[in-house]
């Protein structure tokens, strides 16, 4: 095993109580982030990636709540609670107070970059003003020092004429430039971990490439760890060291990036990879995943992927697979939550195959269902 | 600098608008039936030649376009003509009346803005809690009740029944007795506020309710913005988010609303002045319409239009000042 992780998430559960029922947006995920690595969280829209990310900062929108699990960061407990018998939660001792998390974790320890650079910046304040505010809040810099740091950072992320642009407003920047500003914001606070929630999804492919290169370079330079959230396996391939594949609130596969691509353990991961546009394939070769991901309010029983899984068998509908280690690479686990692997002794091989969408038996279902693919998932 | 150019540009733009308004007003007033000279001389024995003399004296014998031109040039030189009814220069008649109206409208606005914005923010913050529901009911009552009715109710309850406030008239702050010392001046101001209180609330309630509703909606909207999420994620306190990050963005529509509210407030002032027996421009307008006092009606209406247009321009400029995204209409 490696040294202690920077961030450890264990059995995290975040739920939204709505009129229609309880949305189990994040349903018991566990993963670690080590120093200096980029860890991907990949999955279709609605899988719970954003809710999981924000849970790490204890920022869940109403009516959501982290109901269980443990989040430890540099030995400090950001969150730890257990579900009690009657469905309530009980906070454990030694958990950081909400105020401490705000002052000592958000920004200065863990910073974020959001998806939509158009909406993430406040339209009525200058770029410089916003940068400076966050720098002053999260570092021991004030006034001119903070201003200087802000300008240096703008330069660092490749904004030409940074000094002049410091006083401009967000609407005077292009989408790509705004995303650079957001990256500058995150780095300027000198956090040890940056959560990037689909930061390139709203950008066109060329700009996306530039941003990925920039992050790669800066990550090397500053040694900051990243959690990189995306629905795009192409981005994962380009930037991540290790990957967590999320489906309906759960992590169904977890592996170092090469292992994930070449020794794929889970049918959902395989489906994501097959639907990914690649230079060596024409569009007709793409094999989109059939059907849409069900609602997180009422997830399918057993394996949550079984209605869409080409390999689903009767047992998959009855038993719920927990992720289990199927291999170890460079001291890292490769975990998968699929009965096809031998580590699960539930009688998969003897179980009769299931008729479902993925087998194409239902023509109607095929038409009615939206086609979700890695490149074109609606986001 | 750009803002200054924009300001000049907006004022220049307003000139044709105001000219158009005066033409329409002029035509309207001169086309309504009823002859002012006959109203003025009603019940008296007047010879034809005297009528002709009066017509000439008030300039009513000349063609309409000449009279319009006279009026317009007079307006710019400060000569607004003579009031038939009061038999005094219109400017004098108006000067005596503009104070109370301005005092009433501005204080009503101040009252509205100062109460509505904090209440709106509070309602947004305590969304769907009891205090939010109460404020929404009050706001609904405020926007759906005519100001004159509120005025009458206020008079009945607080002036007639309880006797806490006077039911009529205003006292002008600058009308303090000249020999009043510091304490005399203080008591004069108390008297001013005492008179102003009920009409101010009667006129300001509608504005308050409208602004509060929009403030609440805008704040709720703004608080859900990505930039608020980002600020939270960087450790900004809820207090600062409420006062700075969410607040500034939310004020943009509110500014427009306040500006447009000026027109409804001017309309409301006419009725409020009638209910509270205040000698302002509103009552002057109504009286003059009844008297067919062309010169006065024309001038009062023009002044109100000017005030309104200036209000709109100031609104636009304020908006441009607060919202950096406003393009300055110069085709840049
Ligand atoms: N404020 C909320 N209220 C109710 N449900 C929510 C809320 N935010 C997210 N969800 C639900 O949580 C699930 C996960 O959402 P999200 O984390 O945004 O997905 P992703 O980022 O993977 O696209 C979805 O089913 C979504 O509908
Ligand atoms: S457990 Fe069964 S349904 Fe689930 S992914 Fe594996 S094979 Fe498919
Ligand atoms: Mg998301």
TrEMBL record, chain A:
It comes from the Archaea. Its EC number is 7.2.2.11. Coiled coil: none annotated. Gene3D superfamilies: P-loop containing nucleotide triphosphate hydrolases (3.40.50.300). It is an enzyme of class 7 (translocase). One of its GO terms (molecular function) is ATP hydrolysis activity. Its main location: membrane. Residues 348-379 are annotated as: Disordered. The complex is composed of two ATP-binding proteins (NikD and NikE), two transmembrane proteins (NikB and NikC) and a solute-binding protein (NikA). This is Nickel import system ATP-binding protein NikD.
TrEMBL record, chain B:
Residues 98-315 form the ABC transmembrane type-1 domain. Gene3D superfamilies: MetI-like. The keyword Membrane applies. It is found in: Cell membrane. The keyword Transmembrane applies. One of its GO terms (biological process) is transmembrane transport. It comes from the Archaea. The lineage of its organism: Archaea, Methanobacteriati, Methanobacteriota, Stenosarchaea group, Halobacteria. It comes from Halovivax asiaticus JCM 14624. Keywords: Cell membrane, Membrane, Transmembrane, Transmembrane helix, Transport. This is ABC transporter integral membrane protein.
